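Sequence and structure are no longer studied apart. To make this concrete, we show below a single chain and its fold as tokens.
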Amino acid sequence: MKNLILLFLSSLLLVAYSQAQSYDKQNHELGFSVGVANYLGDLAKNNKPWFFGETQGKAFRPAVGVFYRSNFHKFLSFRAGMNVGQLYGSDALSSIGTGREGRNLHFRSNVMDLTMMLEWNILPYKIGHYKHRFTPYIGFGVGGFYFNPKAKLNGEWVNLQELGTEGQGLIEYPNRTKYSKIALNIPVSFGGKLNVGRNWAIGMEVQYRHTFTDYIDDVSTVYPNLDYYDNNYITAIAADARALSYRGDNLDTSNLEDKKRGNSDKSDAYFFILFNVSCKLGSNKGYCPSFR
């Protein structure tokens, strides 16, 4: 997986460089994004349509981003970007009756997201153009991201992947390996962009990420035998693993092993809602011009 991510990053840089060499700089722009991020997964979906599932309004967290865009055709743009934000989910925010209240799990994870996309402008567009000033657009591409789910225990946020909350890494479960904190995604975006003067553009968009991991929230399959943690970890770490694997109120956990903890049938997903500001690269100096 890490080799695939490195290959992806190398391809992204190569394509961005080739775009920069192939087209007039007047068609290029640099941008900054600010907005919010949210997550869809085992702690935030029910039987509603999967694409946006059960979005938890209280789970929105801040996100920022930077991007480079090459408008190499009036209907097509190449875009490479990075977003950084936080994802959050909690059974406590679920709708009453979903059955997740008793599970009582939660998580948060900072995420660093790298993508390259091809954007289709529904209307003719070029940054700074006096006539082709506005267009809605749709984007599609490939990406990768880093995540690290944590949960709060005794007032501190604890890394979950290292603990193997579903038995990953325990000698009693040789087939349960720890998941990678780096994964691939398929980015899809839709939004609109508008020229403001000769050098600047603003826009709003939604960026959705279909991922290839079910562990953004550290929840996917079944509970382990909680007693096995004592065979693998020192006392303090074993206690943390037990407490963060099962957070229900049933004191008798002797029959917990292999009971359903999550749903591995569908991967997790996340999305950004972003406000964008971008500037056209100067034709000679290669930097964004100042306001006039």
Q: What stands out?
A: Residues 29 and 179 are 37 Å apart (CA to CA). The chain has one domain: 2-19+31-280.
